[in-house]
Design goal:
The structure holds two protein chains of two kinds. Chain A is of the alpha/beta class. Chain A is 41% helix and 14% strand. In chain B, helix 1 packs parallel to helix 11 and helix 2 packs across helix 4. Chain B is built from eleven helices and eight strands. Classes of the chains: A alpha/beta, B alpha/beta.
Chain lengths: 411, 263
C-alpha cells in the first residue's frame, strides 16, 4: 500500500460570519478577509504537519491547489512541492495535482516538475487535474475548452519530459516555437502520473486509457465500486488488467484519543457548509462548457436552486456511508478494512483534519495514524494483495508499458 | 393584423448546419438574435415580416444550428453570415438590410466592416462589441441563466410573459448551451473586439443605433461610441426598456426600424 497524508490547508482564520453574510466563500468572497499574519502562521504549521507525517511513517504527502477561496491556502502546489523536495527525505511528493487547463505555458510546468523531481531525488508523483469550475473563472481560462486544454497540455508535458528537444509544438490551444527545457525529470521514463477525480466519467475513462492510477476523492463506497467497474472495463479494452495498483482513494479520516473528540473535530470536515469547494455560487462552480453534457440538466437545475448540490451530503450521511471516518484507531481500523475489502485500492490518502481543528489536535491525529492505523492497514494490504504501483513495479503508462525503474534505484 | 407564416430550412455552411427561419415578402432583412438565443414567434419578428422578407437564422452553435467546433471568435460568425447571404436567393442580389440585437448587433457590425457598402441599411440594437470606457459589459459567467436574462429586462413582467416566471428546465438547458457557445467565441476579451471601433469608420451603410434607456447589460455609453464611430449613424434611445427591448417594446422598436428601413 501507498499511504499518504493530505490537508486542504484550510485558511481557517477568516471571519466565518462574513462568508455567511456574503453568501459565498469562494471566487468573489473578498480577500480583504485574508489575514496574512494568520496565513504565515498557518503555512508554517502545515509544513510542520508534513514533516511530522514523514517522521511517523507516511509514504507520501499529497498536495493540491485552489484559487480565491479560504478552504485551501495552496494557490500553487508546486511551491509546497518545492519546499518539501528540499526539507523531507523519504516521502513521495504526490501532486493531485497541477490544474493543466489553467496553464498558458505547459512547458513551464514541465520544467518546474522536472526541477522538483531532481531536487527531491526522484520522489515526485505528478498528478494532473482539470481545476474546479470557479478556478477557470479565477484565472480567466475558458471553461468551454477545459478538457481539450487538459489533454493537450498533458501531451505536451509528457513529450517535453520524454523526447529530446528542441521540437516545435503547433497544437490547438498551445503553440511553442521551441520546446527545449534544460530541466528534465530524474525518474524515467517520467514521474508517475496519477489522476484524481470525483464526478466526471470522462476523466475515469481517460485515466484508464492512459493506464494512469485514478484517485477517487472521498466518493461513497458504492459509487467507488462503479468507478472501478468502469476503469477496469476501459483497462481491458486497452489491453491490460485493472486492479489495486491503479486504484487510489482519498479518505476523510480524523483520529483522536476518544471517539467523542474525534467526532467533534470531524464535523470540521463540513466547515465549508459541506460543499466540496466551499459555499459557492453554483454558477461559479459549474460554468457553461465545464461539465460533461450528460450532467447539463442536473447542473442547470442546481444553478437556479431547483435541486441540491449533486456533490453535497449531510454530515450524518457521510459518517454513515464512511465518506467521513472518525474515532480512535480501534474504531476506525475496521471501517477502513471494510473500505479496502470492498473497493481494493492500493493508494490511500488521509485527509486528516480540516477547518478549525487545532494544530495540536492535528498533530495528535497524524501521530495516531502513523503509530497505530498505518501499520494495521499495511497488514490488511498484504493480506488482501493491495500492492501499490511502486510495490508492483507497474508501468508508468500505456505509452511506456515496460516496468518503471523503481525510484530507489534512481538516486 | 395577420401573422405571416414562418418556414424553416437548413444549410450546410463551413462544415456545420445552419438553421434559418423566414417569413414575409419585400426587401430582405437579416435579423440576428441575442447571445441567449431567441424564442420563436416573437411579435417583433412578425411585425418586421409584414413589410419585409425576414431571415432569422440561429447563430452557429446556438438554438437549432449545429456547433462548428472550429469557431473561435465573433468575426468567424460574421463570415458565416456573409456566406449565408451569398448562398440564398433572396439575398444573393444584394440590397439586404441587417438588424442585429445585442450580441447579434455585434455580429452585424463585424459584417458591416467586412463589406462597408454591401448593406442597404444597418440597425444595431444595444450591440456588444465595443469596450465601454466606464464600467463593463455585464458578465454572464458570474450570474445564473435566469438572473442574466432578467438583468436585460426593465419590466420583469415582460420576462414572465415570454419565459414564464420560472422558466422550464428545457429553456435553461438551451441558455446553457448558448452560453457555452458564447464562451467559445467571446470569452476573452469578454464581449468586445478592440479592433472594431477602428474598422467602423469605413462603413458607409446608413445605420440606426437603438438603445434601451435602462440597458443594464451593455452601457448606453457604447451606443454613443457606435454612433460616433460609424460615419452614417444616429442613436435613438427607447425609454422604458432594457437590453432585450425587442421583447419589452416590440411595437415601438418595429416602428422605429420599419420607418428607418423605408427611408
Amino acid at each position: 500500500m501507498h499511504l499518504m497524508y493530505f490537508t486542504e490547508q484550510p485558511m481557517s482564520a477568516y471571519p466565518e460570519e462574513e462568508g455567511r453574510t456574503f453568501g459565498a466563500t469562494a471566487l468573489m468572497f473578498s480577500n480583504k478577509h485574508f489575514d496574512p499574519v494568520a496565513g504565515s502562521r498557518l503555512y508554517n504549521e502545515y509544513l510542520e504537519h508534513y514533516r511530522l507525517a514523514e517522521s511517523v511513517g507516511f509514504d507520501g504527502i499529497m498536495l493540491n491547489e485552489h484559487h480565491n477561496a479560504p478552504f485551501c491556502m495552496q494557490a500553487k502546489c508546486n511551491v509546497f512541492a518545492s519546499i518539501l523536495a528540499a526539507t523531507t527525505k523519504r516521502v513521495k511528493i504526490v501532486l493531485l495535482g497541477n490544474p493543466l487547463p489553467l496553464a498558458d505555458n505547459p512547458v513551464r510546468l514541465a520544467e518546474e516538475l522536472a526541477m522538483i523531481d531532481m531536487v527531491s531525488r526522484g520522489r515526485l508523483v505528478s498528478g494532473f487535474v482539470r481545476g474546479g469550475g470557479q478556478e477557470q473563472l479565477a484565472t480567466g481560462v475558458n471553461p468551454a475548452f477545459n478538457r481539450e486544454r487538459f489533454e493537450e497540455a498533458h501531451a505536451l508535458i509528457v513529450k517535453a519530459w520524454t523526447q529530446v528537444g528542441p521540437f516545435r509544438w503547433e497544437g490547438t490551444h498551445y503553440q511553442h516555437r521551441v520546446v527545449n527545457p534544460w530541466a528534465v525529470p530524474l525518474q524515467k521514463p517520467h514521474p508517475r502520473v496519477w489522476i484524481p477525480g470525483v464526478l466526471s466519467k470522462e476523466t475515469i475513462i481517460w485515466a484508464a486509457q492512459q493506464r494512469y492510477p485514478y484517485i477517487a476523492l472521498s466518493t461513497e463506497i458504492e459509487a467507488t465500486k462503479k468507478i472501478w467497474e468502469l476503469y477496469d472495463k476501459v483497462a481491458a479494452e486497452n489491453g491490460y488488467a485493472g486492479g489495486p495498483e491503479y486504484r487510489g482513494y482519498l479518505q476523510r479520516c480524523h483520529i483522536a484519543e476518544t471517539d467523542e473528540k474525534a467526532m467533534a473535530n470531524a464535523k470540521q470536515f463540513m466547515w465549508m457548509q459541506g460543499e466540496f469547494t466551499g459555499l459557492a455560487h453554483p454558477v461559479w462552480s459549474s460554468p457553461s462548457g465545464y461539465f460533461s453534457p450528460s450532467y447539463r440538466t442536473a447542473f442547470v437545475e442546481y444553478a437556479v436552486g431547483r435541486r441540491s448540490n449533486p456533490r453535497g451530503a449531510a454530515f450524518e450521511d457521510q459518517i454513515a456511508n464512511q465518506q467521513i471516518v472518525a474515532g480512535t484507531p480501534k474504531t476506525v481500523i475496521p471501517k477502513l478494512r471494510r473500505l479496502l475489502e470492498e473497493t481494493r485500492p492500493s493508494i490511500m490518502g488521509f485527509w486528516a483534519s480540516d477547518g478549525f481543528v487545532s494544530s495540536a489536535d492535528t498533530r495528535t491525529c497524524i501521530r495516531l495514524l502513523g503509530e497505530e492505523v498505518l501499520p494495521a492497514l499495511r497488514e490488511i494490504g498484504k493480506e488482501l494483495g493491495l500492492w501499490s504501483p511502486f510495490e508492483a513495479n507497474a508501468p508508468t503508462s500505456r505509452a511506456f508499458p515496460e516496468p518503471a525503474r523503481p525510484a530507489g534505484e534512481v538516486a | 393584423m395577420t401573422t405571416p407564416p414562418w418556414t424553416s430550412e437548413t444549410l450546410p455552411i463551413a462544415g456545420a448546419t445552419l438553421h434559418v427561419t423566414r417569413a414575409g415578402t419585400g426587401t430582405p432583412v437579416l435579423v440576428l438574435h441575442h447571445d441567449i438565443g431567441t424564442p420563436e414567434g416573437l411579435p417583433f419578428y412578425d411585425a418586421l415580416a409584414r413589410d419585409h422578407t425576414v431571415l432569422l437564422p440561429s447563430h452557429p452553435g446556438y438554438d437549432k444550428s449545429e456547433r462548428p467546433a472550429w469557431m473561435r471568435n465573433v468575426r468567424d460568425a460574421a463570415v458565416v453570415y456573409q456566406s449565408l447571404l451569398a448562398r440564398i436567393e433572396a439575398t444573393r442580389g444584394g440590397d439586404v438590410s441587417v438588424v442585429g440585437l445585442g450580441f447579434g448587433g455585434w455580429i452585424a457590425a463585424e459584417m458591416a466592416t467586412m463589406a462597408p457598402r454591401a448593406f442597404r441599411r444597418l440597425v444595431l440594437v444595444g450591440p456588444m462589441g465595443i469596450k465601454p470606457e466606464r464600467g463593463d459589459i455585464a458578465d454572464q459567467a458570474l450570474v445564473s441563466y435566469i438572473d442574466y436574462v432578467r438583468l436585460g429586462f426593465t419590466d420583469q413582467r415582460a420576462f414572465d410573459r415570454i419565459f414564464g416566471a420560472e422558466p422550464a428546465t428545457a429553456t435553461l438547458e438551451q441558455w446553457d448551451l448558448n452560453r457555452e457557445m458564447t464562451f467559445r467565441i467571446a470569452w476573452k476579451p469578454y464581449m468586445y473586439n478592440a479592433a472594431l471601433p477602428h474598422l467602423l469608420g469605413g462603413v458607409t451603410t446608413p445605420t440606426l443605433v437603438v438603445w434601451g434607456r435602462d440597458d443594464r447589460i451593455v452601457p448606453l455609453e457604447c451606443g454613443e461610441r457606435y454612433a460616433k464611430a460609424l460615419p452614417q449613424a444616429r442613436l435613438a434611445i427607447v425609454e422604458g426598456a432594457g437590453h432585450f427591448l425587442e421583447m419589452e417594446q416590440p411595437d415601438q422598436l418595429a416602428r422605429l426600424i420599419g420607418d428607418f428601413l423605408c427611408t
